[in-house]
Each structure stands twice: as structure tokens, then as C-alpha cells.
Amino acid sequence: MERKDLLNHTGGDILRELLLAHDVDHISLPLFNCLSTPGIVLVTSGPGTSNTVTPMLDGLLNGTPIIVICGQVATSVQGTQAFQEIDVLALARPCTKWCACVVFDTAALHQPSYVPDPHRDTTDSDTSNPTASLDDRIAHVADLINQAHQPIICAGHGVIHSQHGPALLAQLSQRSHIPVTTTLLGLGSFDSTLPEALHMVGTHGTPYANLATQSADLILALGARLDEPLSPSPSPSTPITAPQTITTLASLTSNPTTTTTTLTTGVGHHQMHLARHYPFSASPGTLITSGSLGTMGFGLPAAIGAQLARPTHTVIDIDGDASLCMTLSELLTAHHAHIPIKILILNNNGQGMVRQMEGVSQDATTMEWCTRQGNPDFVALAKSMGVQGRRCTRGEKLNEDIEWLVGENGGKCKGPAVLEVMSEDGEGGLKPMVELGRGLGRLAF
What are the residue boundaries of the Thiamine pyrophosphate enzyme central domain, all occurrences included (predicted)? Predict the structure, then answer.
């Protein structure tokens, strides 16, 4: 029997059991990115169920399917505010495509049960047919392309999850000579080393991608919803900078011909630096991140899930100090389950993205209380959980330390490991960026 990973708090003899510290759902989300199969989560009633809300909404907005099976109190005490009772359907409906309360006793009855006949139910119903055939619509798009003077393609998450999406996108771009931008979740859908690549578009996108999109007379949005995720973040100006760190990481992990690296991120300026500075090839699932919902703490549990799905890959969580603190307890899961993920922390001692946004409109000192991060000693904390740890404070040691973490054959350190890179925000944060609430052509430098 093929082995499956059961992301649960208890298990059986057939399925592998993982005793998770907290974030069961975010660990399951990467299974679809890596294996094209939905993650299945089992949780208990009450707080077990309520803890699944954020990951369910993350999956819904990012187009990443998970199936959550949750317990409930006995039917005899439902509606009495019993211990750990919660209205599961009311809680889950806004976060899911479909949710239902299933009573297993009904399925176990010995007498025949009614099975609806879809044919009988739908034969006489009114249906709406497309106003144009698929061929007609494709021909119309082709006409628009031929008439356009400055067309551009915006590739999103849907391209990655289409069976032949990246290959067809490359053909369309190169045959039609149309440049390609990608959304954050679309990174990996198009080879960023090709001359047609304009890289990421959006608030933290490259200036040339934003300006090209702004001046285009035709935008082909393929697999993209055109919603704007989170915005800015800082750029360190001290001995170690975030771009320098990402570039060094790329030199040791990025290979245009063979992809054996999977990257996850939290949410914050580290996420945007990675999107801007890491050279993504056309390798679907290379990047797993929280886009539309922007869930801080996503990176660590997502890395665990990705490593389970891709045991031969080097899986690296590029995280920020504030974001990592949200789910730091999952280091225990990685240690106890012998999951060899690597965590690279870009520590700017604060919520840099929030700090930059607030600095645009308010005096920096008024928001210092909520943007300055009171961090633990990440290295000492990692070691206390059985995970190797190292701290980098000098630029001349950066290459050596990243080599230790993720060098050839998964780094010199075996098993889960943490590298904390100390950095400081540069003047004005991560720029250029689109001014908040303005069009792509309004850049703040």
C-alpha cells in the first residue's frame, strides 16, 4: 500500500502519524502545489476546528485545495453550549467552496438508502449555454493580439496548476513575442531568465514590469485574478542586505536545468525581496507562499508539508522574524518527525512592511510600539528544540553560512536547521514601490 502522511494529532497503524505542535492545516496546503493532490486534515471539535479557519481561507483565496474533516460534540448536546461545541457550518461557509455536516449513523443503516439521480434532477431544468463557442472565443483573443501594439501577459497561479500551463505559456510568449509578467503566486510559471521575462508585477514588482503593464494596450491575464496582495518592506543598508542574502542563496540553489529546491515564505518584506531577487525558472511549485490572504507564519508549516511531499528536495523557508514567531513551535514537529527543512531568517527586528507603510503617512515614532519586534534568541530556541542553529552578523561570513545551511547535497548540516541573518532596514524601506492606492505608473523611489 502506498504510504500516506496523515496530518493529525492521533493516527493508526497504516498511515504515518505526525504529532504536530500547532499548524496542521498550513502543513497540508503545500501538498497540492507539490503533488497536485489535496491535503486532508483531521481535527477535533472546538479549538481544533476553529484553528483551521485561517488555513482554509488561505487555500480558498490561493486556489489551493484542502479537505478538512472535523469532529463535533454529540448530537444530544448540540445547541447547549457544551464543552468544545462550535457551529462548524457557520464558521466554515465563508472560508470554503463547500461544507456540510455528515452523520455517519445514516450511512451505516442496513436498510436501503436513497441516492439522488442527477440525470432525473437536471434533465428538465433550465440551463444557460455559452454565448460563443470556445473556438470563437480563442479566435477573438487572437484578433486582439494581432491588433495590439503593446500586448503583455500577466501569468498567475492558475498557469502553474494547469497541466501544460508553463510550456504553453512559453510557446505563446516566444511565438508571439509578447513579454510576460507574473503575479507573486505565478512565480515559477515562466522562466525568469528568458528575454521575454519582465518578472513580478504589483506593489513590490519590478519597475519595468509595472511600467510595461501600465502602458500596455492589451493585458492577457492567464490564471490571474488581478487582486493586489500586501505591499512594501525595507531594504537593509548595513553590512548584510536582504537582496545580498537572496542573491547568495540563489547562487547555491538556483539551477535552470534541474529543480531540486522548493522555497516557502512567511509574509513580509522577506517575501517581497525573494520575489524580486530570486531567479525563478519555469518550475511549477518552486515557490509556495501565502498570496491573497497574506498569512504571517505560513512559511514554516508550509515547508514541513512541502518536504513531506518532496522528500528528495532541499526545502527552504525564507522567513522574517515577526512572521516566523507566529508558528515557531513547529520546529518541534520538524525535529520529532526528522523532517530536514532549512529555515533562513531575515531578522530586521521588526515588522518592516508595516513600518514602511505607516512611515508614509505617520510619524515613525507613533507606530514604533507595534512594529518593533521583541524577538527571542532564535538560535538558542532552535537548539532547545533539537534543531541546529547559527547566526550571521557579518557580510563576509554570509556565503559560508548559507553554504552551511543549503549548500551542495542539502547543506553541511543534516536534518532541520536554522540560519538567522541579522539585517537593518534601509532608508525608506524596499523601493521602488507603487504608491499605496495608486496605479502601477505611480512609483515611489
Answer: 138-233
